[in-house]
């Protein structure tokens, strides 16, 4: 232990997102005093800017088997069992906090933001689910589902008088000679502070989506930008490695596509309110059914590597669209990531301002547009000609795009967006068991150390849409309960 202790509590939680709030609330309600640390000057983490969606099964047994298939033996079955059991209790848990859930619906105007209830319908067991989010109310007023959920959770943290230290990142775990985790060192302004944890430490400090070296070492594709919490730089990875913890699921991630502009660190997420658009790779060719792509799976879609050219042929790729799309409404969400929210950038209703800024390419001909986006002119013209002909025939033999979004690209003028794989969150971190205990490489729990949420998520292979947030809530509660139940450490 350090010679000087600045604070102490029964349980110290590092990371104030969905998992951290759930852990802190549960630990408090089980009789523990709690200190909740947060690196950023505001709470919420990735959950605060997410859709806040949660998938609930009507047949839990089938859904449990579906998730086990998706994990592909990367996660022990008992963790999936525990998750599904906890998942079913979430509506009542929110109800006790004065919040309700409502069914989630993708905005009907969107022609590209596809968020299916079931990500892999080919796998048996997942067909009978419903997706919910926190309902608007006096305690949940935000238009964003994730922000509404965080409003509910932060209100409960405040009501309980839990001590919260914002702008105070955890830096190092304190371990005694018995290998027990007995505290945390954190940075508060220019000072390092030491906080004793009498019963346990819970790490809910997010992933490494804003850490270029960790992304490069663990993820594909390698050219991955970010659109999440800028504070998620993998700080917890170093902390758990120093105390001998095992890591898992380091290559698993969720990614959208995004527009990167010099003025902002995070990317803007595209959306199209009319169907006159397609996507082409860096050589001007279509590569997918644009009307049926789960927004979470762009990392996989764009990871195709051309060994002959030795390049990612779809990075960057380009959205090509027409005047109707341009006039219909913003081609990017008004906000996309905490730093954009902080700056409160408002996208123009007809995209005119973004065209002036050079964020959107505008051209009087396909030849001119091809030059602006650096693709082969003849290839792009052939792509558009073929696509438009197929639209008029009412079919898409290349990629089977649905008829309701199969419309020709009319021009001139023509417009283009340069798009990149954009990470939402990573799933890797400390290996844990179904008690939220962090494990060493031999599978033994490191005493008094717990983890939950994105930091070492149970999703290790394929991801079922809208399960990250409920997984954070389920295992955050488990971590909080178990940490609070631990016997106080002996000095």
How would you describe the overall organization of this protein?
The structure is a single chain. This protein folds into 2 domains: about 5-250 and about 425-485, FAD/NAD(P)-binding domain, CATH 3.50.50.60; about 255-425, Flavocytochrome C3, Chain A, domain 1, CATH 3.90.700. The strands form 5 sheets. Strands 1, 2, 6, 7, 8, 9, 20 and 21 form an 8-stranded mixed sheet that branches. Strands 10, 12, 13, 16, 17 and 18 form a 6-stranded mixed sheet that branches. The model has no long low-confidence stretch (mean pLDDT about 95). It is elongated, with a radius of gyration of 24 Å. It has helices at about 20-30, 60-70, 75-85, 90-95, 145-160, 210-220, 235-240, 300, 325-330, 340-345, 350-355, 365-375, 375-395, 470-485; strands at about 5-15, 35, 55, 100-105, 130-135, 165, 170-175, 180-190, 190-205, 225, 245-250, 255-260, 275-280, 305, 310, 315-320, 360-365, 415-425, 430, 435-440, 445-450. Helix 1 (about 20-30) packs parallel to helix 14 (about 470-485), helix 3 packs across helix 14 and helix 12 (about 365-375) crosses helix 13. The chain contains 14 helices and 21 strands. About 50% of the residues are buried. The chain is an alpha+beta fold and about 500 residues long.
Task: Describe this protein with a few key phrases.
FAD/NAD(P)-binding domain, 22% strand, single chain, eight-stranded mixed sheet, alpha+beta, Flavocytochrome C3, Chain A, domain 1, 491 residues, six-stranded mixed sheet
């Amino acid at each position: 232990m350090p010679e000087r202790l600045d604070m102490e509590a029964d349980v110290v939680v590092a990371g104030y997102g969905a998992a951290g709030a759930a852990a802190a609330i549960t630990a408090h309600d089980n009789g523990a005093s709690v200190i909740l640390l947060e690196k950023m000057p505001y709470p919420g983490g990735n959950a605060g800017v997410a859709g806040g969606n949660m998938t609930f099964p009507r047949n839990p047994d089938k859904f449990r088997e579906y998730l086990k298939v998706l994990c592909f033996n990367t996660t022990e079955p008992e963790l999936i069992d525990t998750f599904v059991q906890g998942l079913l209790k979430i509506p009542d848990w929110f109800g006790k906090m004065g919040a309700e859930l409502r069914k989630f619906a993708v905005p009907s105007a969107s022609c590209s933001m596809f968020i299916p209830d079931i990500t892999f319908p080919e796998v048996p067991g997942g067909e009978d689910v419903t997706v919910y989010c926190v309902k608007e109310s006096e305690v949940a007023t935000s238009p964003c589902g994730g922000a509404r959920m965080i409003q509910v959770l932060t209100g409960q943290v405040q009501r309980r008088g839990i001590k919260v230290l914002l702008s105070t990142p955890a830096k190092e775990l304190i371990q005694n000679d018995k290998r027990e985790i007995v505290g945390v060192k954190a940075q508060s302004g220019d000072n390092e502070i030491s906080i004793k944890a009498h019963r346990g430490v819970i790490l809910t400090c997010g992933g490494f989506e804003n850490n270029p070296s960790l992304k490069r070492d663990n993820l594909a594709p390698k050219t991955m930008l970010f659109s999440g919490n800028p504070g998620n730089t993998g700080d917890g990875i170093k902390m758990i490695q120093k105390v001998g913890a095992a890591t898992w699921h380091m290559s698993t991630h969720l990614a959208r596509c995004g527009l990167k502009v010099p003025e902002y660190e995070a990317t803007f997420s595209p959306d199209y309110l009319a169907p006159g658009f397609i996507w082409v790779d860096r050589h001007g060719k279509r590569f997918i059914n644009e009307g049926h792509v789960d927004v979470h799976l762009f990392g996989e879609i764009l990871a195709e590597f051309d060994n002959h050219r030795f390049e990612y042929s779809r990075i960057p790729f380009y959205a090509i669209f027409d005047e109707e799309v341009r006039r219909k409404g913003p081609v990017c969400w008004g906000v996309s990531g905490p730093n954009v929210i902080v700056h409160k950038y408002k996208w123009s209703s007809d995209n005119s301002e973004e065209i002036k800024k050079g964020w959107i390419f505008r051209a009087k001909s396909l030849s001119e547009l091809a030059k602006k986006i650096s693709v082969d002119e003849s290839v792009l013209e052939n792509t558009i000609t073929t696509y438009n002909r197929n639209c008029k025939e009412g079919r898409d033999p290349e990629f089977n795009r649905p008829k309701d979004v199969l419309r020709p690209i009319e021009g001139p003028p023509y417009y283009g967006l340069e798009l990149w794989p954009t990470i939402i969150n990573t799933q890797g971190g400390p290996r844990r068991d179904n008690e939220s205990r962090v494990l060493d490489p031999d599978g033994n729990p490191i005493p008094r150390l717990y983890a939950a949420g994105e930091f070492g998520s149970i999703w290790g292979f394929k991801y079922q849409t809208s399960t990250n947030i409920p997984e954070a809530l389920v295992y955050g509660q488990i971590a909080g309960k178990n940490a609070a139940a631990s016997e106080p450490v002996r000095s």
